[in-house]
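Exercise 7.
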Amino acid sequence: MTSLPARAGRRCHNVLNPIHSTHYFSPDCDREFAEIGITDGAAARLAARSAALGAVGAGTVAAAFYNYNHDLLGRHLPAVWRVASPEEVLDARLRVVDATLRRVLGDAVESAEMKEAARLALTATEACTRHARPLYSAHADLPVPEQPHLAYWYAATLLREHRGDGHLAALLTAGLDPVEALVSHTATGKGMTPRWVLGSRGWRRADWEAAAGRLRIRGIIDADGELTEDGTALRAELEDHTDRLDAAPYEHLGATGVARLTELGRGFLERALTAGAFPADLTGKS
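Solution. The predicted structure, written as tokens, is:
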């Protein structure tokens, strides 16, 4: 096993994860889900991510997603499964991903680089572990798509959910509740803006302000909502803790493979960003 440079796995994750997320912001999502009877955008996106778990309710999804308001989830789950089965949702999601990646990546979808990236990413997933990782484990039970761009997306999904499940353990260890986790992440400048958080996670502005107040009492953010020195250290330790829990797939792939997958993934991500795959105001502090 080759020793990896510091944070090499995190850097690789950071270029793979957005490719997984492109379908959530895609106009193809609304079209394909409407075809199977799901016309509410929030319901479609909640179903898309949770369908691998089966026809589950709000409680299960609240536990697995961590930072969504249970009341929001309860408005759509389990009711959405009476409109379309998890299997129908998973099929629709794959159609969304296919259409989205073909639009934002263009001819890279059919390239030798895409085949190489899919192979490398799938190799990394061989070392992922199931225990205490419900979203990863549920997705790992799904078949690997045959087309390279879909296989790459699927592998990116496995790696995203593997890291994400571990990140929840880090959040619990740090003593951050769902809204505190969101507020402190936004304060780094790398998380979603409050508008996007409140719109997608189902929290109210009052919930956000209350969480910010608790973080100020703990000395994690200051009166202006900026991270304090202690807050910066806390967020850094959160990511380091997550790195430790997520090391296995990247160690399995090895330093050369991780570097190459990161290079390829960065190229695909740059194409997606240039094509407008994400809203311009998605991330930031305000």
